[in-house]
Specification:
two-stranded antiparallel ribbon, alpha+beta, 2 domains, 11% strand, Butyryl-CoA Dehydrogenase, subunit A, domain 2, homodimer, 601 residues
């Protein structure tokens, strides 16, 4: 079997870099220790090896499709989803009282990373079911909780998020699906939703849609949007009855072909009942409370694909002979056997680039999950701090793996040469699959506006100050190790450079020139992400050095040196790119602002 | 019909930037003038509109495939290939004496650009037939010429290049296909070839393979490789007879699904006859004389896809409403109609990036074609100079469009959001199609070794000096225009920076540390390509200003301003990235060199 991840890397990041033990000391997680967590991760790995990875290619070769009102998926999907649910992949992080396992979200992220690396077609189904159940648990009535959540945790029912409509992609203020109040307190729902992931399939008994709609007469824009539970089948005393929710079609896609994307109609025959979640007109607030977790999930999915692509291309590079090493006179000795391609410098550069991106991205995904756990369950007085750290890191956690992960996978494909483009090898599937992640849950452009336009500036820059303090703490720890000092200094310099960039940009915001302020937000995202990942790499470097000093523990010395070598690679081959981005952001030409004409032809 | 290119852009670059009139003054091209060239380009555009673009999606949706020993392609392919041949797309650049039209290669490139932008599945069939016929014309006996070339120019027979073997991808020194001399001067061929583009299909009467093989007992390595004509069917007095060439299978691919990639066997029943081309053991030399043209062709194909993706995403951006512009207080007015997405700064940034890459790449492709024409048909005393300019630009002309074109198409897909990932829209097809170009005809890694390891250093750096002189001439011309001066200065600064980079790298080559010298060749390629494209943009800027001074001629003022605006964009958003690349190349850590261990896990 082809490797799709390195469990040592995951363990090293969880236990050594991110010090999971600190989380496990919190009262909520009192039942867990390192050993029980290890057993759980191994169980998910075993499940992924046996059930997920073997059907990954099949799911691509036989895409999910729409047939006569139904969505047809892989025949084993039902079995897989129920097994996943049994392993805690829906309710794992929920309260014991709600039928959950009270696992840290950090562990939830780790388990989903394993699952996604093995087969990125499956995590969406369980993840959205988890998200939908979570919204019900947080904001809905006890009646709704009892009627829906247990079936979702068991994997018998699926769940979705219904936001997008044909006329309103990223612009939720323009949705028109309408909820008409009924005498019994329920609502009649009427409207259409598109791009609904996991929207319908035959392997669950029911699908529970968490749907955004306007109650008739609600105010315009996002302040008039409410959240509803709208099941495909209504649970009644007589069992499940159809609720006038139909699948009008599906979207055939370039990748993730085992994961359905549907077009749903609600109330075509005026017989679709929805149940209000929480208060009217607060729907978007509720949805956004889940958004940090959902966006971390997107980053995690992209990182998982980059991990799988890296391991597939590494395996190829170690086995494929091709060409010969250069001798000192620049010639090659034809009497030598061919070299393995991993012996060519440029191939190693492509492999290190992949490793630096995916492991850096994984570390960030775990970092944000850690902050999420601390924000929700840490000591009361520290929760606000962690919430701010989570808020500022979320758009980066979603975007860096989606954008740079694509570059990583692209390099993985290139390692295979012509074979990388052929369907006989898996790299082309990863290349297609990962492309959606820069679009899911708010495009890169939107994440970048969120980062620069909201998160950097919010509360007078408080989140940024907290993040800088975290980085400074890592720099401080690195200064204990002589061979980390140069990298600590580089990170320090880049933090100063970031302050200079912001000092150049903020006056535009203060003068009310918001379009100008945000015109290069996507460039700023690329710049700031590089800084954040450099911090993560230094943090990994510190934990590797600490391990090396105390004996390698459960890791080999080669493993530890590999972490340090990849840290050096990131600082040497990626961090310098920040300089060029600074120059771009300091331009005064306003070339992308809308002036009298568009100048595009 | 969706636009896939802008004919004004092509005309502007041909006639104004690259001064086609200078080429047409050469004796070889005496029969052509600007008007006849325009008529020819319009005829190809008309053919592309009517025959190529309408079947582009179909060819993807119903891929070429292997069925019982045969390759099944689109039913209209035969008609298309014959029409293309009639339009001169096989023999256009050949001598009148050989049945050609004696067109400049620059016009050959322009016509293929149009064809490829409309449908990149077709140009490979005609282009390889042209390349195979050209090899026969240059190096084979009159008997072979007469027997084969007329059928190829007419489009009745196809042609291929058979280089790659299973055990020897990029490493031609390791091919093992063998040619056994026969008493009558012919050879029996025995071996297998893979990845043979256009290798077999039912729409031509015969396929003529130009095949590399070793004559039994030939020296090892590239010095023992000979070139043979090996037809699928041997022409005899009694017509065509089978020649023991069989199709063992095809390669299913992520993109270019309308273009077959085959696995061929030669001489399985010892009955395959090959005809030696030119002298024994000179096969690779002959093949490499065609290589500049072939590599320009790869760059041209990639640029054409980037053009098509740009125009598709531009059209979408002009028609799709979504969200609203920011007001000065940072809020949005919900009572406004939704904006078109082209009004958002980040969308315009993505569109300008695409335009800057594809038009910059197209200009480079035409520049290299111009040098090719001058090297072959220019004044005798200048041919050597143009040959050197062609040699140094070829690896960049192949690589920039393939690498940055992919980034351009990626941005085009992103403009469409979720729709970009869906099969209902064409962007995902361009995203898949363009991925092979960084692999065709020598990967980016190999082109980069060629650029830094051979072309920069050859003849004591003479090619680089000539190229610098060309750039300086453009800078000089730009200094006549006040608003071009800042960009001319930037280009001058970057030329100096390039000299500094090389001054840092060359000592490694001189000391015989070749692996170290070339370790970051791919980074150097990215750096140097950016410089070359900046030069092309300044050149376009100069020609736009000249037009503006003399009245816009056949172009609108908006068109000219659009060229200048995109030039500014390239200098502002792309050229600054060179700074970071300099920092990378100046690193002293040798992280990708093979030391005692690989450090990859």
């Amino acid at each position: 079997m082809s490797a799709y991840l390195n469990m040592d890397t995951l363990r090293f990041q969880l236990f050594n870099t991110h010090k999971l033990e600190n989380l496990l000391e919190l009262p909520r997680f009192a039942d867990y220790d390192m050993e029980s967590i290890q057993i759980m991760l191994d169980a998910i790995k075993d499940f992924s090896d046996k059930e997920l990875y073997p059907v990954f290619r099949e799911m691509d070769e036989n895409p999910v499709h729409y047939d006569d009102g139904k969505i047809v998926t892989h025949p084993l999907l039902g079995k897989i989803l129920r097994q996943a649910a049994e392993l805690g992949l829906v309710g794992g992080t929920f309260d014991y009282d709600d039928g959950g396992l009270q696992l840290p979200s950090t562990i939830g992220t780790a388990t989903y990373f394993i699952m996604d690396a093995a087969n990125n077609n499956v995590a969406g189904y369980t993840g959205l079911t988890m998200g939908a159940a979570e919204l019900i648990l947080h904001f809905a009535s006890d009646e709704l909780k009892q009627a829906y959540v247990p079936h979702m945790i068991s994997g018998d029912w699926g769940g979705t998020m219904c936001l997008t409509e044909p006329q309103a992609g990223s612009s939720l203020s323009d949705i028109t699906t309408t909820a008409y109040p009924q005498a019994d307190g329920t609502y009649k729902i009427k409207g259409q939703k598109i791009f609904i992931s996991g929207g319908d399939h035959e392997h669950v008994e029911n699908t529970v849609h968490l749907l955004l709609a306007r109650i008739e007469g609600a105010p315009a824009g996002t302040k008039g949007i409410s959240l509803f539970v709208v099941p495909k089948h209504r649970p009644t005393e007589n069992g499940l009855v159809p609720n006038d929710v139909f699948t009008a079609g599906d979207f055939q896609k370039m990748g993730q072909k085992g994961y359905c994307t549907t077009h749903l109609t609600f109330g075509e025959t005026d017989n679709c009942t929805g149940f209000l979640v929480g208060e009217a007109n607060r729907g978007l607030n509720y949805m956004f409370l889940m958004m940090n977790g959902a966006r971390i999930g997107v980053g995690r999915g992209a990182v998982a694909i980059a991990s799988a692509a890296y391991h597939a291309s590494l395996q190829y590079a170690k086995e494929r002979p091709q060409g010969r090493r250069l001798q000192n006179d620049g010639s090659k000795d034809l009497n030598q056997e061919q070299s393995l391609i991993i012996e060519h410098a440029d191939v190693r550069r492509m492999l290190f680039l992949q490793k630096a991106i995916y492991e850096g991205g994984l570390s960030l995904v775990l970092q944000s999950s850690y902050y999420l756990d601390m924000a929700n369950h840490g000591p009361e007085e520290e929760r606000e701090k962690y919430k701010l750290l989570l808020d500022i890191l979320t758009p980066i956690t979603k975007t860096f793996p989606s954008e740079k992960g694509r570059e990583a996978v692209d390099n993985g494909l290139q390692v295979l040469g012509g074979y990388g483009f052929c369907s006989d090898f898996v790299l082309q599937q990863y290349y297609r699959d990962i492309r959606i992640f820069a679009i899911y849950e708010g495009t890169t452009g939107i994440q970048s506006l969120d980062l620069l336009g909201r998160k950097i500036t919010m509360r007078g820059g408080e989140a940024l100050q907290l993040l800088s303090a975290e980085m400074m703490a890592t720099i401080q720890a690195a200064m204990d190790h002589n061979d980390l000092k140069p990298y600590a200094a580089k990170l320090g310099d880049r933090i100063k450079q970031t302050q200079e960039v912001l000092a150049g940009l903020m006056p535009f915001a203060m003068r009310g020139e918001h379009e100008r302020f945000l015109a290069d937000a996507t460039i700023f995202m690329e710049f700031f992400s590089t800084l954040v990942i450099a911090w993560q790499w230094l943090k990994m470097g510190v934990s590797a050095k600490q391990l090396a000093l105390t004996g390698a523990g459960n890791y080999t010395e080669d493993f530890i040196e590999s972490v340090l070598h990849t840290m050096r690679f990131y600082f040497t081959y990626e961090v310098p790119k920040m300089s060029g981005l600074v120059d771009i952001m300091s331009n005064t030409e306003e070339l992308t602002l809308l002036k009298e004409k568009v100048w595009l032809s």
